[in-house]
Design brief:
This protein is α/β, with parallel strands linked by helices. The protein has 13 helices and 15 strands.
Length: 334
């Protein structure tokens, strides 16, 4: 199926990019809130199976069209680009459907609940030549950019340490996630911290991973060692049924940058002095990384080029495959 759409190359560069949203949950609200700070983008319509939620968001954020499905959204709102912001178990299916429109596409992660689903979406996007971006918002944390810059000012990055502990009891207790999503949690949510290994280190050349299972069939206790290009070393730990959270530690020459929690940065220097960095105003005002990734998406639509540190479906697939390597050796705890 194809739809008669305006060629983005014919759109005046001074006109905001018209964006249609597919999905009306919490993540859609967060994107709409951040979009208020990105004048290059203009939300013009929303589609959702839960029309009442879509109507509420449309009224709050001034969206002109409320539709029942993506086809209706494209036909009536005539967007320049689409954002797929549906539930984790639906992203892959809706992504494949929306790729058929040929419009630049932003996808919330996960792009699937398995490597196979991510492979299919990446394959179709490549075959159709559709511009796309996947929302790993932490890649756009201003605090990460500032902390890494401080490390590199002193010399080389030596190692990347990522802690990716999950609060599975809390996730189950919310009632927000289906058992299908909870079972695939390593792809549905843990790919956020796992992706930070690639964000800071690049594509790993060697991976040695161990995993055990206390309760989760795909694993819930993880340890991995990685070697990145240039000799940078990496490590990952995840303990999903113990108190903890997400953290990153960057080791440099005479400096350590610790992001614990991820939205903060404390630098420690060889002489014992410390420095605390602050995020940019955008990251302090709305969900961190959201304005940065929306600006990157606008740039993709305008120029056809996805600028670093953003990643497309092919990059997201690389992160999914790395997560797959982490769970491959899983064994039950004896």
């Amino acid at each position: 199926m194809t739809t008669d759409i305006e060629n983005t190359a014919d759109r005046p560069v001074d006109r905001p990019i018209r964006v249609g949203l597919v999905g009306a949950g919490l993540i859609a609200r967060q994107h709409l809130t951040a979009m208020r700070r990105v004048p290059e983008l203009l939300a013009v319509g929303i589609a959702s199976r839960t029309r009442a939620k879509a109507e509420a968001l449309a009224a709050e954020f001034g969206l002109g069209q409320v539709c029942d499905n993506p086809e209706e959204l494209v036909r009536q709102a005539r967007p320049d680009a689409l954002m797929v912001l549906v539930s984790p178990q639906a992203v892959a299916q809706v992504a494949v459907q929306c790729l058929d429109f040929g419009l630049p596409l932003f996808l919330e992660k996960p792009v699937g609940l398995s490597v196979a689903e991510a492979e299919e979406a990446a394959r179709i996007a490549g075959e159709k030549g559709v511009l796309n971006m996947v929302g790993f918002n932490r890649r756009h944390y201003s605090i990460f950019q500032k902390g890494l810059r401080k490390v590199l000012e002193r010399g080389r990055l030596l190692s990347v340490q990522v802690e990716g502990s999950e609060r599975m009891a809390v996730a189950r207790g919310t009632g927000r996630f289906t058992e299908e999503v909870l079972r695939a949690w390593v792809f549905a949510n843990a790919t956020h911290p796992i992706d930070l290994l690639r964000h800071f280190g690049g594509e790993p050349e060697e991976v040695c991973a161990f995993a055990t299972s206390l309760h989760e069939p795909l694993g819930d206790q993880f340890v991995a060692c990685l070697r990145f290009p240039g000799g940078v070393l990496g490590s990952f730990t995840g303990n999903w049924h113990s108190p903890g959270g997400w953290a990153v530690v960057l080791k440099g020459e005479g400096v350590t940058a610790e992001f614990r929690p991820l939205e903060t940065c404390r630098l420690t220097y060889a002489d014992g002095t410390t420095e605390v960095l602050e995020p940019d105003a955008d990251d302090a005002a709305v969900k961190p990384g959201f304005t940065g990734q929306l600006r990157a998406f606008a740039g993709l639509v305008r120029t056809g080029v996805l600028a670093p540190p953003s990643q497309d479906l092919a990059g997201a697939l690389a992160t999914m495959r790395l997560a797959g390597q982490f769970i491959a050796p899983v064994r039950p705890l004896s």
